[in-house]
Amino acid sequence: MQFPSWFQNAIQRRLDHVTARIERHPELRRCRDEEESAFQAMLSGVDMTQLPTFMEWEDKHHFKQAIMNEGIYLQGMRDGAQLVFALLADPLPSGDKLLAKNEKDRANNG
Fold first, then answer.
1. Helix or strand or coil: residue 100?
2. What is the pTM of this model?
3. Is the separation of the CB atoms in 57 and 46 below 8 Å?
4. Who is most buried in 13, 41, 48, 80, counting CB within 10 A?
C-alpha cells in the first residue's frame, strides 16, 4: 500500500522533530560528551594498539546510539498509537465510500 505524499512528508517532519528533540536530551548530551572524551583520549598520542582505550570509546558510542534509537522507537510507538486511536475515533471514509458520496452529491447538484 502506497501512502500519499502528504502523509509521507508529515511522517518525515515528525521524525525530524523527534530526532532533534532527542539530540538535545540531557542524558544523550552527557553520553555524547563522554564518547567524545574517550575518542580524544584514544587519538591523543596514545598508542593505537591499546585495545582497551578503543573499546571504551566504542562502548560509549554504541550506548549513545542505543539511547537515540530507543527514544526514536518509543516516540514512534506513541505516535502510532495516537494515530490508531484518532482513526478509530473518526475513521476516514474508504475510497469507495468517498467516490459514492461524490457521485451522489453530483447527482443531487446536477
1. helix
2. 0.44
3. no
4. 41
Return the C-alpha torsion angle 97, 99, 100, 102, nearest 10: 120
Taking Cα atoms as reference points, which of 64, 75, 60, 80 lies closest to residue 21?
Answer: 75
Phi, psi of 49 (to 5 degrees): -85, -5
- Could you tell me the maximum CA-CA distance found in the chain, to the nearest angstrom? 84
A 10 A CB-CB count for 57 gives: 20
At 64, list the grid cell: 549513545
pLDDT tens profile 46-69:
666 777 877 888 899 999 999 989
